[in-house]
Amino acid sequence: MAEPKKRHSSTRSGNRRSHLAVKAQSLATCPQCKKPVLSHHVCANCGFYNGKDVLELEKKQAEKEARRKEAEKTNE
Ligand SMILES: [Zn+2]
User: Fold this and answer.
1) For residue 52, is it within any domain?
2) How far is it, in rounded angstroms, from Cα 69 to Cα 63?
3) What is the pLDDT of residues 20-53, one digit of tens each?
């Protein structure tokens, strides 16, 4: 098998690893609810993207509530 001719110095390894540090996420502010959001991502808090309610969280919550009430009725 091929072997490296010489070992790399710790300086060379350190120079290579100088670019490996994890950087802090840069966050934008949601124009709808003013919470911090990742840019170009749907807001997890209000479900808005580009001024539109794309996740329809309130509608889904209402549907879930209706289903839960229906299940309670059938159990009684
Ligand atoms: Zn939001």
Assistant:
1) yes
2) 10
3) 999 999 999 999 999 999 999 999 999 899 988 8
CA of 59 to the centre of ligand 1 (A): 16
Q: Is 1 inside a domain boundary?
A: no
29 CA distance to ligand 1 middle (Å): 8
Give kind and range of the element (H or E) at residue 48: strand 48-49
Q: E strands, the chain, where?
A: 27-29, 36-38, 48-49, 52-53
Tell me how far the alpha carbon of residue 37 lies from the centroid of ligand 1, in angstroms.
7
Query: Token digits for 45?
Result: 């808090």
39 or 58, which is more confident?
39
Domains in the chain, number: 1
d(CA 67, CA 41): 30
Expressed in angstroms and rounded, the spacing between residue 22 Cα and the centre of ligand 1 is 26
